[in-house]
Task: inverse folding
């Protein structure tokens, strides 16, 4: 079986600058990089609002999954990275709206900061295609 490596770009100017892809698919695995709440115009979505920022991060990650040939149903692991872990319930609310029925493994951690101080959250997503549920 041949594994084709495919990269997905979100168009972020940080991708070529840092040297990363929004997502990478290798065989049945799809990994979505740390996804920040960046709007189509390059500005931060939902300043000061963890819930709105998490929704935006999940929107971007879901689009990357689709471009890689996956869906939310294929997600096996997520990570919610927050600059203030006391706001975890707002991030979890957005996460639960997408994943309540899928229930991937999920980790919530606090980080000291992100590239842009307006970002309160980043989301990472890992998926495996062709899995059976049981």
Result:
């Amino acid at each position: 079986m041949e594994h084709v490596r495919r990269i997905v770009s979100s168009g972020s100017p940080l991708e070529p600058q840092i040297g990363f892809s929004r997502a990478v698919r290798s065989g049945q695995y799809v990994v979505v990089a740390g996804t920040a709440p960046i709007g189509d115009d390059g500005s931060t979505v939902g300043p000061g609002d963890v819930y709105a920022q998490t929704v935006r991060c999940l929107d971007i990650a879901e689009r990357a999954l689709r471009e890689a040939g996956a869906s939310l149903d294929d997600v096996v692991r997520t990570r919610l990275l927050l600059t203030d872990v006391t706001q975890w319930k707002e991030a979890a609310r957005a996460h639960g709206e997408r994943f309540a029925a899928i229930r991937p493994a999920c980790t919530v951690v606090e980080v000291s900061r992100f590239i842009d101080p307006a970002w309160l959250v980043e989301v990472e997503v890992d998926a495996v295609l062709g899995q059976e549920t049981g």
Q: What stands out?
A: The two ends are 25 Å apart (CA to CA). The longest helix spans residues 50-67. The longest strand covers residues 75-82. The mean pLDDT is 94.
